[in-house]
Structures are given as structure tokens and as C-alpha cells.
């Protein structure tokens, strides 16, 4: 019998909605599925016991058959448990709908009593719905097929994949923009760029593992981060070379300044030396000569220390945006390289400075190469691939097909 569509004056719409027939159909479907699962489980149990199996492949066929049969039995048990509770809910729903229908009919003669009867029917409907929902949830939670943490995560990703893809793509563009902006804007350090890249990589790994993203995108992100790491190695090499070059320059400047200062005081050293060599000089004269030598040495040492400090603590050179770009997009690399070249030129005759500065060009080229490779792969992937935020974006179909081939989820614990 069809349900009433007009519930005036008791309600604006059906107060106890639902289809007992649809529930009965689902119960029957679950019953059939459970039977098929039991039948297949029984066959697997027979295979596990090697019943009727002979030949060289029998051992391979029995491997895992017992465990799979057990899993199928557990699945059938879940279907049977849920089917039982759904069947009970179907009966309660029929009773609630019948009571609501009687109340609607009563409203023609006694509206006040009809409202009371309907309220009672709806309360029972709500209580029964909560009761059977709890029974079904408990039956699922208590059976051996409890989902793992990954099953729950994967289910959440599947349900939210649409907006997650958009957010991750936007975050990826932000990470790329930060890497480029760091060249032109001071204050955006490598740590910020790395953090953004790692966050995108972690998100893409989760999406790919759930079958909602391509492992090819993960590989591209790993490559970009790897080149960034290689670049940091080159920058560290340049900064180490800078420190060594300044140290050598400082030591050379100290030696030269000390020697020059002593040469400028040859008269003092000569007279003091003659006084000390004179056997006829008094003790006071010899003491004064020694003090003159000590004072001269102190002055020379001071001159050397000042020259060393001037060389090692000289202001760092200023670098332009072009310098940073040429250095592989890193300001530290640009400053270190320019400082090495400046120090080398200022101490051209110092072999120690020349030796310490060796390798700067190699480190610079290395940083340029990894920067170009990382940015090229990252930007190339964005240009050639499709977009979740710009659905009409042109893309290179063979490249997108290649990425799609590497879209495969990590299975559940089953």
C-alpha cells in the first residue's frame, strides 16, 4: 500500500519515512551473498585439506586457501549479523508507519488525539532506529573484520578526494612560487621552501597510496626535493670555501703586516741590539733596550692582528638578483662565491688563498645545474600535466597517460 503524501494537518512531510520493502530486498540480497561466501569458503577449506587434489601444483593451491576461507567465513558472518538486525528494523518500521497512518486517518475526526498518537509513533520510530543502528554498528565493530587504521584513512581520503586534490595542487604551486620568490625576496629562507615541498610530498604520498593520485607525481616531488638537497650540499661547499679563503687571507695579511711593521722599526731593533751587545752598557741601558724590543714586537703584533681582522671580518659583498639567479637561486651561494672571488683578487699573490679558493667554480656550477634540473622538472610537470583546479587546462596527453599508469592504491589489510 502506497504511503500518504499529504500529512496535513499533522505534519508537513512523512514523519516516519523509509521503505520496508527496500530493506527486505537488501536483507534478501545479504542472505544470498552470505550463502555464496559460505559456499566458496567451504570449497577453500577443502582445498586447504587437499581433498581431491593431486599433482605437482597441489601444494601451491593449498597455500593460503585456509586463510582465505577463514576470511570469507568472517565476511559471511558480518553479512548474516547485519541482515538479522535489518530484518528486525523492517518489522518495526512497518509498525511505526502503520501507527502513523492510523493517526492520519484519526485526524479527520479527532485531531488532538491524532497528534498524540503520531507523536507516540514517531518517538518509537526514532528509538527503534537508534536501537537497530547501534546493534548494526556493534555487530560490525565486534567482528574479526575490524578495519585497520589505513582502511579508515583510505576511506576518508576517498570521500574527500575532490577538495583534497585541489588543495594539494594549489599548495604545490605555492611551493614552486616560494622557490622562485626566494631569489628575489629576502626573508624567504631555504627552510620555508623545504617545508612547503615536504608538506606537498607527504600529502601526495597519502593520495597515491589511496589510489587518488599518481606515484609519478610523488617521484617528481622526490626529485625536486633531492635536487634541493644536492643544492644545499653545493652551498655548504661554497660557504666552507669562503671561510677557508678568508682564513688564509687573514693569516697572510697578518704575516705581511707584522713583517712590514718590524721593517718600519729596524732602527729601534738595531739600536737595541747594539746596546745589548755592548759589554760596557749598564744594566739600566740593557733593560731599556729589551723593553724597546718588546714594545716594537707588541706594535708589530698589533699591526698583524689588525690586518688579520680586516681580512677575515671584511663586510660581505652585496649581491644583485642576477647574481642570485646565476648562483642557482640561492643568496648564500651568491654571497659566498662573490666573496671568494673578491678575496682571491685582493690577495692574488697569496698561494694559500689561491689554494683555499679552489673548487668554488665547481660548486657554483653544481648548484646551477641542480637548480635548473629541479625547477625544470617541477615546472615541466605542471605545464605538461592536467589540472584539478583548471579543468580546461591544455596538457600533453602522453605524459598524462604515463602518470595515470602509476595510479594504484595500496591495498587494505584484507
Task: Explain what the structure shows.
This protein has helices at 20-48, 58-62, 65-106, 111-142, 149-184, 190-209, 215-264, 266-277, 283-312, 321-326, 331-346, 351-357, 360-384, 397-405. With 414 residues, the protein is an all-alpha fold. The radius of gyration is 42 Å and the shape is elongated.
Short description:
The chain is mainly α and 414 residues long. The protein has helices at 20-48, 58-62, 65-106, 111-142, 149-184, 190-209, 215-264, 266-277, 283-312, 321-326, 331-346, 351-357, 360-384, 397-405.
The overall pLDDT, averaged over residues, is 87
Structural class: mainly alpha
The multimeric state of the shown protein is single chain
Query: What is the CA-based Rg, rounded?
Result: 42 Å
What is the count of DSSP helices, taking H or I runs of 4+ residues? 14
Gross morphology is elongated
Low-confidence stretches: none
Helix content bin: over 70%
Element order, helices and strands?
HHHHHHHHHHHHHH
Head-to-tail CA distance between termini: 43 Å
Amino acid at each position: 500500500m502506497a504511503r500518504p503524501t499529504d500529512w496535513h494537518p499533522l505534519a508537513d512531510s512523512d514523519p516516519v519515512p523509509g521503505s520496508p520493502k527496500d530493506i527486505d530486498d537488501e536483507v534478501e540480497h545479504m542472505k544470498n551473498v552470505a550463502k555464496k561466501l559460505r559456499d566458496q569458503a567451504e570449497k577453500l577449506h577443502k582445498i586447504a585439506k587437499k581433498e581431491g587434489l593431486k599433482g605437482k601444483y597441489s601444494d601451491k593451491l593449498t597455500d593460503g586457501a585456509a586463510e582465505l576461507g577463514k576470511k570469507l567465513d568472517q565476511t559471511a558472518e558480518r553479512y548474516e549479523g547485519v541482515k538479522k538486525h535489518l530484518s528486525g528494523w523492517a518489522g518495526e518500521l512497518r509498525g511505526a508507519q502503520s501507527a502513523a497512518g492510523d493517526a492520519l486517518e484519526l485526524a479527520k475526526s479527532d485531531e488532538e488525539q491524532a497528534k498524540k498518537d503520531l507523536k507516540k509513533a514517531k518517538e518509537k520510530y526514532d528509538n527503534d532506529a537508534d536501537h537497530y543502528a547501534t546493534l548494526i554498528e556493534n555487530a560490525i565493530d565486534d567482528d574479526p573484520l575490524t578495519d585497520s587504521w589505513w582502511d579508515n584513512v583510505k576511506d576518508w581520503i576517498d570521500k574527500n578526494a575532490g577538495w583534497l586534490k585541489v588543495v594539494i595542487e594549489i599548495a604545490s604551486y605555492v611551493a614552486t612560487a616560494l622557490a622562485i620568490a626566494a631569489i628575489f625576496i629576502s626573508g624567504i629562507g631555504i627552510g620555508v621552501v623545504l617545508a612547503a615541498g615536504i608538506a606537498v610530498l607527504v600529502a601526495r604520498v597519502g593520495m597515491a597510496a589511496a589510489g587518488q593520485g599518481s606515484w609519478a607525481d610523488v617521484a617528481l616531488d622526490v626529485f625536486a626535493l633531492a635536487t634541493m638537497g644536492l643544492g644545499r650540499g653545493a652551498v655548504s661547499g661554497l660557504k666552507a670555501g669562503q671561510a677557508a679563503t678568508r682564513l688564509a687571507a687573514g693569516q697572510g695579511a697578518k704575516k705581511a703586516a707584522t713583517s712590514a711593521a718590524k721593517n718600519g722599526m729596524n732602527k729601534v731593533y738595531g739600536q737595541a741590539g747594539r746596546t745589548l751587545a755592548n759589554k760596557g752598557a749598564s744594566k739600566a741601558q740593557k733593560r731599556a733596550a729589551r723593553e724597546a724590543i718588546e714594545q716594537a714586537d707588541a706594535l708589530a703584533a698589533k699591526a698583524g692582528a689588525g690586518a688579520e681582522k680586516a681580512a677575515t671580518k671584511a663586510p660581505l659583498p652585496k649581491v644583485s638578483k642576477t647574481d642570485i639567479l646565476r648562483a642557482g637561486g640561492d643568496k648564500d651561494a651568491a654571497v659566498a662565491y662573490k666573496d671568494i672571488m673578491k678575496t682571491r683578487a685582493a690577495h692574488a699573490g697569496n698561494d694559500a688563498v689561491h689554494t683555499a679558493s679552489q673548487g668554488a667554480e665547481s660548486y657554483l656550477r653544481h648548484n646551477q645545474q641542480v637548480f635548473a634540473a629541479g625547477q625544470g622538472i617541477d615546472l615541466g610537470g605542471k605545464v605538461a600535466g592536467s589540472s584539478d583546479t583548471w579543468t580546461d587546462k591544455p596538457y600533453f596527453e602522453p605524459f598524462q597517460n604515463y602518470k595515470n599508469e602509476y595510479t594504484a592504491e595500496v591495498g587494505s589489510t584484507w
